[in-house]
Please model this.
Amino acid sequence: MIKDLAEQLYTEERMAIDAIDNATDQSMTGQRKAKVETTSNYLIQLKERVLNYSFSSNEEEIGFFKLTKPKFSSLLIFYSDVERIELDKPEGGLAHLKGYYESELKTIKRFFDANRQIYAYYRSEADYLDSQLFLRGVPNPPRWLCKIRVDQDERFSTAGDYMFARIMATEQIARYLENSISGLDFHPFTDDDIETNWTGESINLLEVAYGVYCTSQVNHGKIGIGALVQKFEKVFNVKMGRPYRRFSEIKQRKRLSRTNYLDEMAKSINKKIDDEDAYNPNDHKNHD
Model:
């Protein structure tokens, strides 16, 4: 499947970028240029694979142009923009440089304001327009949602894949600028490095979500259980179903064991504390 091939290629790309970061024989300018060239080459490789591949279904094609290709494109956009930002950086003191970065942040804000509809579609993980945005050769794509690029290769692009990549990259650029103002290092797209999959029963994670919700631990309690569950689902790549409906499964349990998983968690944590605090004769000898 193209997804597996792309994931392998993406892993190689991130390793190549890390190698550039760790190179000691290149200037920062040389490293930035190398990253642009590297990400461009990997996007070309991805294109070559797609042009020689037949998608098995519309769902597979949508998944590729909505999720997979933007990962590659966003890297190229990010490093290209960083190169431009740093090349255009003015000479002067810290205050002058801070003003320059803040001006770039204002440009980013204008981008999101101008594209608020497609950004909302991206952020909400909606899918009702996917067949118009992420399939090739759609005759009348929703131009009110995103502009049509005139330089696109119709064999390797859809109405929405570039905008998703642009959004992904721009979010990272904003963080890059914020860290630059604060004098901190920034490593983009680090969330993609470690995949976290919930491998236990989904009802257990729902218990955790309700525990967080009922104790008002997020946003001072100003978040609905539905939104909170969606966050958990996104982080752990799992579907829990409708929160209120599944909560009824918890309510129907016996009174003494309604929170089975939370009880198990508490016991496991307490056991770990007890085990680490347990008397160890070897430790005692070492302190004598």
Residues 202-287 form one domain. The chain has two domains: 2-192, 202-287. Residues 284-288 have pLDDT under 50 and may be disordered.
